[in-house]
Write the structure tokens for this entry.
Amino acid sequence: MRIGITFDLREDYAREGYDEEETAEFDHVDTILAIESALQSLGHMTDRIGHARALAKRLVDGDRWDLVFNIAEGMHGFGRQALVPALLDTYRIPYTFSDPLALAVTLHKAAAKRIVRDHGLCTADFAVVEALSDVENVTLPFPLFIKPVAEGTSKGISAASRIRDRTELRQGCDRLLARHRQPVLVERYLPGREFTVGILDTGSASTVLGVMELVLRAEAEPDIYSYENKKHFEERVDARLATDTVGLAAAELALSAWRGLGCRDAGRIDMRCDADGKVNFLEANPLAGLHPRDSDLPLLARLKGLPYNALIEGIIASALSRVAKSVA
């Protein structure tokens, strides 16, 4: 097949003046090279398209592909991850990963938590602060945890995200509202073990790749998988498979959340335990990072004995199953 690849490169946005944190979700060129190499090893021809604006121009110019491998995150708005899939849907071009609805819903963490909660699945109690005055309406018991409602890669999360009283809540929300220009998600703080669960495939066919526990080392910012801890993952975090009873509970909850949110092909669900050891849904990552060495999903695949090229092959196979159904 002729497969186009849509993506956002950090280098492109850095040249436009965006800083390191603002571009943290975007890819370096070595990720694109790895995906390209994997696709070519499977016998496909590849075409680098780039971001949503580049895709729009190519589509208007008449370019078409048998399939698009989409990892474009977008820059602005709650629909930023949905832009590329929406354009491709308009031209009826099949693509990997989730559709615009799932990508928009999961990007907005409060919306995702509402859907997960409506499915009867466990997630920490929460509130949304859209303006500083909303802090007075938050009645959740302390300690709390705050983060931007629609960011990834632990952006906006630091040691100051754990909130002990109303003064800290007001100061923290003020800081995040100013920095990220979006609402703040306020959750009951979960002090227990943290997991990320890899999921493969779609709907009833989806399965758990594995459960990876994230254990902070002594030199890490304590208690929180912060932006700095994630940035310095190799020095600050130990990643290990979790196959005990709690790990199995995380797998079950993650699979139910994945299906309930309508995610497709491959991705991750992040979980954390409360003080009683009960697993809670944190957020969904339907456009999980795919750097062959540094990203969590390929790392989890390696721990389970699944090579990178086989992971990419599985993603393509899942996407093509939709194409087969659409023409059946």
Notes: Residues 308-327 form the longest helix (20 residues).
